[in-house]
Amino acid sequence: MFNNLNVALYVSGSIAAYKSLTLARDLIKQGANVRVIMTNSAQLFVTPLAFQTLTKNKVFTDISEEPDEKEITHINIAKWSDISLIAPATANFISKIANGIADDAASTTLLATSGKKVLVPAMNDNMWNNPATIRNINTLKNDGIIIFSPTKGYLAEGYSGKGRMIEPELIIEKMESKLSNNHLLEGKRVIVTAGGTRESIDPVRYISNNSSGKMGYAIADAAINAGADVTLISAPSKLNANYKARLISVNSSADMENAIKDNFYQSDILIMAAAVSDYKPVSYSDQKIKKNDDNLVIKLSRTNDILKEIAKIKSDQFVVGFAAETQNLIENAKSKLQHKNLDMLVANDVSGDKVGFNSDNNKVYFIDNNGIISQTGIESKQKISNDLIKLISERIDK
Ligand code: PMT
């Protein structure tokens, strides 16, 4: 479930902070991207440098420190994170977030975060049993925050009591069972397409585009995390597919169409993130075309529009297309939604250089037949994939 998941790890001031180094390392081992936010008192127990060394990311400790004047760090982290993990959470830090206090880097970033939050307390047993802490924990539970209660064990005070933070291994195990995108697509068979198809001109040349496969591979990860059985039909890409996906590698748009048709009847959802060639050479030369002094004219013909072909055989499958546009984004996207008989469309403006083809980010509108559902800012393809899976799960028959 952690593959490519963005985890914001909040560390507050408890002796258990040393365990969060192991936690960060283990999350990374499982494929998560980890960024750490520390309170001032946490830094008395463990240094930011230790976390930075493990995560390869700068640790956020000071709300006034903005290295890039175009960015607002706490908002960036809030938007970036798929999950916020607060471990260890002290009684003081719990009290702050239960009451919406934002007076340092950690509490301010958390207050700006709308995504899932998991809180792992660590404190003295009397603090844990204090009515104020009990009130705060109940408030956080009502706010939808998942709490992994402390365990009984040997405390730093030198005696045994309930207040000890649970071990990193157990935190990860519990996160897996509680959060694996909440089994949103449990039992669903999902086809995801990715990458840019290649239309061969001769044995060594082809027509293609700049699609890297990042968007489709991230969707495959997100669908797997949501419990789906995923077939990833990929045009050439340098990426490694999730080992849980059934990978079908294809080259041309015709190969992709055949692979989709072979699997479509047995599937519940098709997500077409691939950049499929619209044209292919009319003829293929068996031998490498020799150059001469004249211009070379290659005549192109239209490829099949795969989504239009799929629309002809579609029964109750939920079909999602993408629209990559450089102008009139919404207008063109809505027209594609209709013409291709789609249930949902992800429209992305690929005119900027920070988004779209071969970028780590996209900026999209989610559209269905009722109009625009929602829009994102510039977000990681992982985040967009998680949002997409959630929206699909809300629209399919369970
Ligand atoms: O792979 P990345 O580097 O991460 O880049 C991601 C992306 C920009 C490729 C992706 O986000 C994206 O927008 N994919 C769709 C690109 C595209 O081909 O858009 P389109 O507007 O030309 O096509 C609309 C839809 O029809 C798409 O779902 C496409 O898969 C499908 N199509 C297109 C042509 C064709 N012959 N048959 C199709 O089914």
UniProtKB/TrEMBL annotation:
- Cofactor notes: Binds 1 FMN per subunit.
List, for all copies, the residue spans of the domain called Flavoprotein: 6-178
Q: Which HAMAP family match?
A: CoaBC
Write the gene name. coaBC
Q: What is this protein called?
A: Coenzyme A biosynthesis bifunctional protein CoaBC
Question: Entry's SUPFAM superfamilies?
Answer: CoaB-like, Homo-oligomeric flavin-containing Cys decarboxylases, HFCD
What are the UniProt keywords, alphabetically? Decarboxylase, Flavoprotein, FMN, Ligase, Lyase, Magnesium, Metal-binding, Multifunctional enzyme
Biological role stated in the UniProt entry: Catalyzes two sequential steps in the biosynthesis of coenzyme A. In the first step cysteine is conjugated to 4'-phosphopantothenate to form 4-phosphopantothenoylcysteine. In the second step the latter compound is decarboxylated to form 4'-phosphopantotheine.
Listed EC numbers:
4.1.1.36, 6.3.2.5
List cofactor names only: FMN; Mg(2+)
The protein's annotated pathway: Cofactor biosynthesis; coenzyme A biosynthesis; CoA from (R)-pantothenate: step 3/5; Cofactor biosynthesis; coenzyme A biosynthesis; CoA from (R)-pantothenate: step 2/5
- What InterPro entries does UniProt report for this protein, alphabetically? CoaB-like_sf (IPR035929), CoaBC (IPR005252), DNA/pantothenate-metab_flavo_C (IPR007085), Flavin_trans-like (IPR036551), Flavoprotein (IPR003382)
* DNA/pantothenate metabolism flavoprotein C-terminal domain: residues covered: 185-394
Reaction catalysed by this enzyme: N-[(R)-4-phosphopantothenoyl]-L-cysteine + H(+) = (R)-4'-phosphopantetheine + CO2; (R)-4'-phosphopantothenate + L-cysteine + CTP = N-[(R)-4-phosphopantothenoyl]-L-cysteine + CMP + diphosphate + H(+)
Q: Does the entry feature the keyword NAD, yes or no?
A: no
Identify its protein family. In the N-terminal section; belongs to the HFCD (homo-oligomeric flavin containing Cys decarboxylase) superfamily.
Extract the ranges annotated as region (Phosphopantothenate--cysteine ligase).
190-398
One of the entry's Gene Ontology molecular-function terms is: phosphopantothenate--cysteine ligase activity
Higher taxonomy: Bacteria, Bacillati, Bacillota, Bacilli, Lactobacillales
